[in-house]
Write a structure and sequence with these properties.
The chain is mostly beta strands. The protein has 1 helix and 18 strands. An 8-stranded antiparallel beta barrel has the order 11-12-13-14-15-16-17-18. Strands 2-10-9-6 form a 4-stranded mixed β-sheet, with no helix packed on it. A 3-stranded antiparallel β-sheet has the order 1-4-5, with no helix packed on it. The termini are far apart.
Length: 254
């Protein structure tokens, strides 16, 4: 067995400890790669569906903090335009994507613009199809009676949801409350019924399959619906009176 002198043994221990310390060094001679990923901005203030001519203001945040130096773009400015301040103006029916960009990242939202049906529309209507019960006492069903008439439609709209009141001159005492929405093809779809009076009705008027479109250049409405009328014939209760296919064209907005 060979023994090292005390001084030599100490030197060996120091060398061994030094190598251990070097192996435990957490520093690296290779530089850390900088982050090159683009962050994500959150767009706030957006709604997925708006009416044509409606405005809304957008903002952008990064990690919950308002982003600075943001620029805005629209993939189709003819559908909806956006200013540098994030003010969006819906211009016509269609779809677009609004994008916010800054040094912090980008973010976008999809937007659908639907036609603006809100307002009161009134004018002439026609009834190309009319089916009357043999017992009908309706003026519309009298021999030689005209099937022409008038309509007044008042629409309230929030995004793609709509409510309306309809007056058809064939039944002047009936004001129909309608509900519906703007369909994917941008048609307004409504339906509703009214009983007159509400309790023990002598008259029931139903408007179904109401469909209408807007000509944005003329600001007119064209459409159709089916009017079904039940009437009490004493001593009998409500029974079918007549059914009419109704058409209207180019109603102006008041």
């Amino acid at each position: 067995m060979t023994y090292l002198p005390a001084r030599g043994l100490l030197a060996a221990v120091l060398v061994f400890a030094s190598s251990l310390l070097a192996g435990c060094d957490n520093t690296s001679s290779s530089p850390t790669a900088p982050s090159t990923g683009v962050g994500v901005l959150q767009v706030v203030g957006a709604r997925p569906i708006v009416r044509a001519a409606e405005q809304l203001t957008l903002a952008a945040t990064a990690a919950g903090v308002a982003a600075t130096g943001v620029s805005w773009t629209s993939s189709d400015a003819t559908v909806a335009s956006v200013t540098a301040a994030g003010l969006v103006t819906a211009r016509r029916a269609g779809r677009t994507t609004l994008t916010a960009s800054s040094t912090a990242g980008t973010g976008s939202v999809a937007l659908r613009v639907v036609p603006d049906f809100a307002g009161t529309w009134a004018g002439a209507l026609a009834r190309p199809q009319l089916t009357c019960a043999a017992t009908s006492a309706a003026a519309l069903c009298a021999p030689g009676a005209t099937t022409a008439g008038t309509i007044t439609l008042t629409v309230t709209q929030a995004a793609d949801r709509a409510t309306a009141t309809l007056r058809d001159s064939a039944e002047p005492t009936a004001v129909l409350a309608l509900t519906g929405q703007v369909l994917d093809d941008d048609q307004l779809s409504l339906a509703g019924r009214v009983d007159v009076p509400a309790v023990t009705p002598a008259l029931r008027v139903d408007a179904s399959t109401f469909r209408a479109t807007i000509d944005p250049t003329r600001d007119t409405m064209t459409g159709s619906y089916v009017l079904t009328v039940d009437r009490a014939m004493p001593p009998a209760a409500l029974q079918p009176d007549y059914r009419a296919q109704v058409q209207f064209r180019d109603l102006p907005r008041r």
